[in-house]
Structure formats: C-alpha cells, structure tokens
Amino acid sequence: MTTTKIFVSPVVIPAKSPVAFMILFALLMFLMLTDSIVSNISLESAAFTQKQDSQSLQTLTVTRNIKSDVVLPLSLTVSTKNNIVDGDSEHQNSLASSLGVREKRGIGKFRRKLPEHEILKSDELTKKFHGRVLEFFNRGCELHFFMTWISKVGSFGRREIMAAESVFKAHPNGCLMILSRTMDSVQGYRILKPLLDRGFKVIAVAPDFPFLVKNTPAEAWLDDMKSGKKDPGVIPLAQNLSNLMRLVVLYKYGGVYLDTDFIVMRSFKGLKNTIGAQSIDVVSKNWTRLNNAVLVFDMKHPLVLKFIEEFALTFDGNKWGHNGPYMVSRVVRRVEGRPGYNFTILPPMALYPVDWIKIGGLFKMPKDRAGSRWIESKVQQLKRQTYGVHLWNKQSSKLVVEEGSVMERLMAQNCVLCTHIYSS
C-alpha cells in the first residue's frame, strides 16, 4: 500500500472566525479523501498484475506439459548388458541431435513439406544425365561401377579416392561413375584428374533424380514427399536419397554399386545379381542381416524392383537403416526361395569381413611379435576370402592408418596412385 504524506503549510487564522474554520475543515476532508482513492487504485492495480502473472504462469505450465508429452520415434534397440546399440552407433549422435532440434523448435512428428535439396533440382546439366551415362559406358568398359556422393565436394577426400583407386586396381578397364552434383564441377574434376591422367575411366555426373525414379514405384513416393503427404523424418534426407538412388540407377542401367568407404581387393567379374550378408547366426549359419553398401545386379532385375517398392511403401524417415540395410533384409527374407528371383547371398567374409565394432583394430600397428603374426594372418585371410573390405567410414574416418597395420597393408596392395597411405 502506498502511503501519501500530506504537507500543510502553516496558516494564520483568526481564532474566532467561523468562515475560516469551515474552510480549514473542508480542506482537511478533501486531502483525506484523495489519499483513500489513491490507495484503492494502487491495491486494484497490484491485484490485477498478480492475476495476470498467475494466468501467465498457468499458461507456461500447460505449454511445458504439452511439450513433454510429444514423443518422437527413435528405433534403436539398446543392449544394456553389453552397452551395444543395434544399428551402427556411428549414427546415434546425428540422429539424437536432429531429434533435439525438432523438439526444441516445437516440431512434431510431421513436416508438411519436403525441404528443397540440391539433388532434387532439375536444370540444363541434369537433363543431359541419361545421354552422358550411355556415352560414358559405351567405351569398352570391363564392368560398370556406380558410387553416390551427396556431400560437399571438399569432403571427397583421401579415403574416397582410395576407394576409387581400388576399383581400378582390380579392374583396369572398368568404368566408374560418381553420381554427384557437387563433384560434377571444376573442383571435382581436379580431384579425379590424377586418375584420369593415368588413363582410368572415371567421371562425376549430376544425376537427374526425377528421371531416375520415373516409371518406378519411387515416382509416386517422391510426388507424395514433395506435396507433403509423407514426412521426410529426422534422418538426414541425403542418406535416404542415397539409399534410393543406388537402387534406381541399378534398375535402369545395371552394374555394381559401391559405397565410397569400400576397398576392392578382387575382381567382381564373377559376381552376378549378388548381395552380401553383414552377419550370420553362429549356430545355424543362416544370415541375420544383409547390407546395401555393395550391390551387383543386372538391369531391371526383379529383386531390385522389389527393393524400390519396399522403400516407397514402407518409408520411415525416423528410423536409421529402415530404408537401407533393414529394408533389403526384409525383402530378401520374403522372396528368398520363391520362383522368378535369381540372386546370390554372399557370406559376411566376402564383403563385410570386419564388423563395424571391430574395424578400428585394422588401423593399429602391431605392439609385439604376436601382434605382427596376427596382422600377417589377417591380411592373408582377407586376400584369400574377400572381394573387399567395408571400412564403416563413420566409425573409422578419424582413425589414422598406422604403419604396419592391416589397413596399411591393404591400401598399399590395392592403390594405383599410392599417395598419403598413412593419412586418415
């Protein structure tokens, strides 16, 4: 309550003047009434402010309660016993970060519109895609290889160059096409020039994504994504576009698809309509999961069409691997043994000889004589039994290739430029 102090100047009044006495009495009453009104106004103002604060607090509390009830799907099976995540742990941080941003910004499960992405754009360069593919592969190619690169051109580094080198070490007359808008540039040409100077057939081509999905089940999927009928999800869009692009390019042209973190160690000429198992059951020896990092298929193969259909019908952008390794595993499990499908499943040792959890061991130098013997044994085993080694780049990209390690031996044996072997 506000206290109003009243200051009265001394007034000389004749003691016996009735008029003066009445004037003084009226003045005192007026001042007392003014003080009461001011006090009441202050009380009402304070009460109103307190009521507003209370309402604001209630609104804030309700908002927080609603926000805490939003559940964003995260499909990762965690084994607390062994502290192992089912699905490559390399993807957890980026996925958790995406989920956190969506929650922080108040984004729910559904984004209304597919974000604009470079790879989806059509222009004069992408319109030449089909013609460039036919022209490039009409050069007496021993085998047709495809890779995809949706990252920045500056990120195509020594590890990726090593993968390209290994293709030509095993297939000197092979042709390698890198589907990439960023690499189809002056800077990309400079990166590939050392291989071109040695006569190898390699090119980066900006893909025409709408053309690639045309007349496939993925065409309707892309339309639904663009119109907002489907949610792109929290997984980086580039990852799922890469999963799809490898399928549609193989379906339309046929050939070999390789991830850019795969070192080829042997010719693929003997492989036909092949997919590799990543893991098997130790008792039954049956495969438990396949992987799509390496795919070898003829043009318009029915299994590849099934992969595209499954991608389009069951797409989920919130689960890592759902549209990639898990997707090909689902389809093969359904069609395996059915007539009309002719394909081969290779054991893990053929394409995925080292699990992502253990890949770091290939980069370490031997610490003693026993370590040296293990490295020699491992190198010889890989030379005999594998077509190549998947490096699980997210797990190993920051590792340095130490001198005397298995990886140093593999790179030295399968390179054609053979520079920067000890760099990560």
From TrEMBL:
InterPro entries of this UniProt entry?
A1-4-GlycosylTfrase_dom, GlycoTrfase_DXD_sugar-bd_CS, Nucleotide-diphossugar_trans, Put_A1-4-GlycosylTfrase_plant
| Gene3D superfamilies, alphabetized | 3.90.550.20
User: Superkingdom, according to UniProt?
Assistant: Eukaryota
Which ranges carry the Alpha 1,4-glycosyltransferase domain?
297-420
Name of the protein in its database record: Alpha 1,4-glycosyltransferase domain-containing protein
Signal peptide range equals none
**Which organism is this entry from?**
Gossypium raimondii (Peruvian cotton)
Pfam families membership: Gb3_synth, Gly_transf_sug
